[in-house]
Amino acid sequence: MQRIFTGVAVVTAAVVLTACGSDGGDKAASGDKTTPDAKKTIDAGAHGGEVKRKVTLEVRGKGALAQGISYQLGSSGSETGSLPWKKTETLTLTSAQQKVGVLVSIVPGSVAGPDGTLKPGACIITVDGKDVADNRGGKSDKGCTYKVR
Fold it and tell me: pTM for this structure?
């Protein structure tokens, strides 16, 4: 569980660093050689190129969780408790994030199956009202991940 959570954190950090990269130079001080068309593109991303996405992470089922839920949705976290479980946030994406995507994920935790064995909970990710990822009703041992654009 810790390895999965660490892997999600590393991938998320890589996406953020890639989207926010800079050459470190100060073009204003050295004479701005950006073409007017490039300036329009830069300005559009900084002033109005943003888009909002309503993202919902959900684990379906009934009863208590045998293991907690871990998630990445704007920030990372984990929760314990009972099912059904749902978390919704509105993400504001810059134009760069719209191109590369922002990773959201959920590790659904374990629930007791009909035969008493532990199995993954049924997870689903919804973006702007559309189901975009699931783990086939808990039949897959993987969690749910999606890049929001």
Answer: 0.66
Q: Which residues contact 101 (CB under 8 A, 6 or more apart)?
A: 15, 147, 148, 149
Q: What is the pLDDT of residues 21-37, one digit of tens each?
A: 444 444 444 444 444 44
Burial of 103 (0-12, 13-18, 19+ CB in 10 A): middle
User: In this structure, are residues 66 and 118 in contact, taking their beta carbons and an 8 Å threshold?
Assistant: yes
- Closest-CA residue to 69 (of 51, 87, 55, 52): 87
- CA end-to-end span of the chain, whole Å? 27
Residue 22 CA: distances (Å) to CA of 17, 18, 53, 68: 9, 9, 26, 38
